[in-house]
Amino acid sequence: MRGRTPTWLYIFAATSALLAVVALGGALAWSRIFDSVLASQLKLTPNSRSFQNWVAPSVPLYFDIYLFNWTNADMFPEKPVLNQIGPFSFREERVHVNVTFNENGTMSYRTHRRWYFDEERSNGNLEDEITSINGVAASAAYRARSWGYLQQKGLSIGLKMFKQQFSVTKTASELLFEGYNDSLLDLAKSLPASTTGGAPPVDKFGWFYGRNDTLDTDGYMEITTGQHRGTVPGQIVRWNFEDHLPYYSGECSKLLGSAGEFVPRNLTEESVFTMFVPDLCRTVNMDYVESGEVEGLNYHKYALSQRSFDNSTVSSANTCFCNGPCAWSGVMNVSACRYDSPAFISLPHFLYGDELRSLVDGMYPDPELHDFYFAVEPKLGIPVEVAARFQLNMFIDSVENVDLYSNVPRMLFPIFWVEQKVQMEYRVLEELKYVRAILDWGAVVCACAALFFAILVAIATCWARKPQYLKTELLTSFEKPKDEAELKLNPK
């Protein structure tokens, strides 16, 4: 009679086979499963962790400013000699406020920033005196380029009457956030908006005057939340209620890219990601530079593309950013979005702007100190280190009928450069390494599990066949003829 296989063995074998198939499927689809789960976690919703971390960042933020002191201002128009002073370091508190989730899958908000001077991190005091270009007079002369003879002469008389000079000497505090009084500002209040470039009337001048403790630094932002199918979080949709950039024409007017605090996922060495920068009023490109490792976590480094500073010499697509005749390569003309002030942005010390460095003394570019870059965990799209650096320069040129500017060289005058460097906290870095390990080893674990359950199925199958095999062997042994010795002992 044949042995009967226990029912539990069939159940065990079937369960193991099912688990083997599931584990194998998990191994083959692990990357897609992980991407789906990660995408759901990165969506911006009122209760998501990514949203809570974004609303009020816990990582320490510092805003460092380096001023250029003009050491031979009394000898102008001789070649300016500049000396870098700083950093003047400010601790930044950043909170996103007025957050509204919209039905179209977007989120609108404003950013509230507050800066506090940090004397310990600074290499200088806010009472230090700095000599720099007269920003008020230079802006007036820049706007006067297109004026008629009588208007230009009127400005020339006004500059003399108010005893304006080409340079000013003020404290660092006055040049930055505190501001200082200038009689030309009082005069500007009585002039039509067309004369002042539409700039709102102010009572003081300072490069950051009126920007501290306000909601106006970045303006109104509207970005995607990633909740709608086919969208990713953090892509710019509207800025200051516009879906395009009114300062430029053609392709340059398109509002594209991430909002700066968000980076695309699944980046490769061939990837170029775009980012919208409110202070530049435009989108810029980030190019792959190199790969590295920090605390055991691999990253890709992307730096601000030199194409973003091209004056259309290399790429004709940049012509629409020129706002008139293109200037030097190595700078961005942002005057159109700065009330027609002569503001041009470059990398610090005119990095990658060889021609510009010949116009002044005191520029010592170093990519390690002056480049703008993101170090990003490429699969997750999470920055592990960011160094945002820009330099503000003022464009000056001769204006025939304005005596103070009738004999000045055409040049860009460096004013200051800023740096905001952020490094991921060790605690977050460890969490990121754990998440990355799940991605890297998840498929391997699933494959091993599939192999393990497949072995269990094989064992169960052999076990199920074992009773029948033994029974066959026993029956066969009984049918064999008895040996001679046994026959002699047991004669019939």
Automatic annotation (TrEMBL):
One of its GO terms (molecular function) is scavenger receptor activity. GO terms for cellular component: cytoplasm; plasma membrane. This is Protein peste. It is found in: Cell membrane. Keywords: Cell membrane, Glycoprotein, Membrane, Transmembrane, Transmembrane helix. The chain crosses the membrane at residues 441-464. Its main location: membrane. It comes from the Eukaryota. Belongs to the CD36 family. It holds the Pfam family CD36. It comes from Arctia plantaginis (Wood tiger moth). InterPro entries: CD36_fam.
